[in-house]
């Protein structure tokens, strides 16, 4: 679907200002709606069609790396609670779990040992105890090295290089045929712009070797839009929708505010009351960004061939412009059968605190506070008749429905406050409710 001409002009003005103020030799940006790149533009010295020029993605490559790890998990070849030692033995970081590495909570040093990996190839990682900079699982600490190790784990599990695994199992199945480890065909030259003049300096390009999963890939705007559609829920058979959603749930929080939150290979940020998921990327000569509003079903991207200068908030700002100019029209509501008898829905009480159980779209149930804040979660039915929490306080917990009581972990919800006919833990005073 195309955008209104007025919307396109607003987006173009935004991108033009970003290219000029950021002194980007070239900048390509676009927006995704209904899974398609519905608008894009190129500014500066960029060949047409601008959406088919490759730029280096930098750390957006980490999202692809995470997908290759999660595919192994979904196949039953590993568990995210496994330690690195179980799959990549012999490192001083062997006690770190895969979840910790994927979410940057493993306390692993930010960069690989040796020379600056973003400008020189790293064929091996001579690790030492110095690469353990923080206790595992204690706090967020962004680590390129951690994703280098995850990529090597994938390579050993599959018996071929991470580049090849990513291409065969993620990029080609998603139709990202113009995403490659090295520039191929029409590709932008990376530049540094002098801080005090308008001169540029070409930046070197190389294969990052074992650190490739942290920032190697090159892609076009059209291919990056496909990755955006993937994060919006179109897994294309590469990952299940549930696993894609799992990627977007925050696991680590950066209280400095620089990164926001981090899921499994994706950043998660709050922007103007919206939750956005995606990733930024930088390599010498290149800056990139991809951000998705899963609730709105939209994504925006930016690719520039400059080492520094581009406003990293550009994709999020494009999403805000799009939302204001052409807000998504939600699907029509229509009646649907309740997944449970209506007699089980409505008010319930945890002690004296009122809650309500509702049927919500998708065959789900929602339990939350009634008229006041309270613990809340959505639940999905299991084959055995129980329900599992999907989010919120009760994520992963089992809900058992009974006409007299709802049992959820140690919580017992009753039809009336402290119902003496229900199995309330600790019992109910025989005198009942009274005025002392």
TrEMBL record:
<dbReference type="GO" id="GO:0016787">
    <property type="term" value="F:hydrolase activity"/>
</dbReference>
<dbReference type="Pfam" id="PF00144">
    <property type="entry name" value="Beta-lactamase"/>
</dbReference>
<dbReference type="InterPro" id="IPR050491">
    <property type="entry name" value="AmpC-like"/>
</dbReference>
<dbReference type="InterPro" id="IPR056008">
    <property type="entry name" value="DUF7586"/>
</dbReference>
<dbReference type="Pfam" id="PF24491">
    <property type="entry name" value="DUF7586"/>
</dbReference>
<keyword id="KW-0378">Hydrolase</keyword>
<feature type="domain" description="Beta-lactamase-related">
    <location>
        <begin position="21"/>
        <end position="314"/>
    </location>
</feature>
<dbReference type="InterPro" id="IPR001466">
    <property type="entry name" value="Beta-lactam-related"/>
</dbReference>
<dbReference type="InterPro" id="IPR012338">
    <property type="entry name" value="Beta-lactam/transpept-like"/>
</dbReference>
<protein>
    <submittedName>
        <fullName>Serine hydrolase domain-containing protein</fullName>
    </submittedName>
</protein>
<feature type="domain" description="DUF7586">
    <location>
        <begin position="340"/>
        <end position="415"/>
    </location>
</feature>
């Amino acid at each position: 679907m195309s955008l209104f001409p007025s919307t396109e002009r607003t987006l173009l003005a935004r991108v033009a200002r970003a290219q000029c103020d950021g002194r980007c030799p070239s900048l390509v940006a676009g927006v995704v709606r209904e899974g398609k790149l519905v608008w894009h533009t190129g500014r500066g010295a960029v060949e047409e069609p601008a959406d088919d020029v490759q730029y280096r993605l930098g750390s957006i490559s980490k999202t692809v790396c995470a997908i290759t790890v999660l595919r192994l998990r979904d196949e039953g070849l590993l568990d995210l609670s496994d330690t690195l030692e179980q799959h990549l033995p012999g490192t001083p970081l062997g006690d770190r779990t895969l979840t910790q590495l994927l979410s940057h909570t493993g306390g692993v040093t930010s960069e690989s040992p040796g020379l600056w990996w973003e400008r020189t190839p790293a064929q091996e990682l001579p690790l030492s105890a110095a690469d353990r900079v923080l206790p595992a699982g204690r706090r967020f600490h962004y680590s390129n090295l951690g994703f280098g190790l995850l990529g090597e784990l994938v390579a050993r599990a599959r018996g071929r290089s991470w580049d090849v695994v990513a291409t065969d199992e993620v990029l080609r199945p998603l139709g990202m045929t113009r995403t490659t480890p090295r520039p191929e065909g029409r590709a932008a030259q990376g530049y540094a712009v002098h801080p005090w003049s308008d001169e540029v300096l070409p930046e070197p390009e190389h294969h990052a070797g074992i650190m490739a999963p942290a920032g190697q890939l090159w892609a076009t705007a059209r291919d990056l839009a496909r990755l955006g559609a993937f994060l919006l829920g179109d897994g294309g058979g590469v990952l299940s929708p549930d696993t894609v959603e799992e990627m977007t749930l925050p696991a680590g929080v950066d209280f400095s505010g620089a990164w926001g939150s981090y899921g499994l290979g994706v950043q998660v940020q709050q922007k103007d009351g919206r939750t956005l998921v995606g990733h930024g990327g930088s390599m010498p000569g290149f800056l990139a960004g991809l951000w998705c509003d899963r609730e709105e079903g939209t994504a925006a991207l930016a690719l520039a061939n400059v080492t520094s200068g581009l406003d990293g908030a550009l994709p999020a700002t494009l999403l805000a412009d799009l939302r204001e100019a052409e807000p998504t029209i939600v699907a029509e509501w229509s009646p649907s059968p309740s997944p449970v008898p209506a007699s089980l829905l409505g008010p319930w009480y945890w002690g004296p605190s009122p809650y309500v159980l509702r049927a919500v779209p998708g065959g789900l149930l929602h339990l939350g506070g009634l008229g006041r804040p309270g613990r809340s979660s959505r639940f999905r039915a299991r084959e055995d008749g129980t329900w599992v929490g999907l989010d919120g306080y009760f994520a992963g917990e089992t809900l058992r429905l009974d006409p007299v009581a709802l049992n959820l972990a140690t919580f017992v919800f009753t039809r009336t406050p402290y119902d003496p006919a229900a199995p309330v833990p600790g019992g109910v005073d025989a005198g009942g409710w009274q005025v002392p």
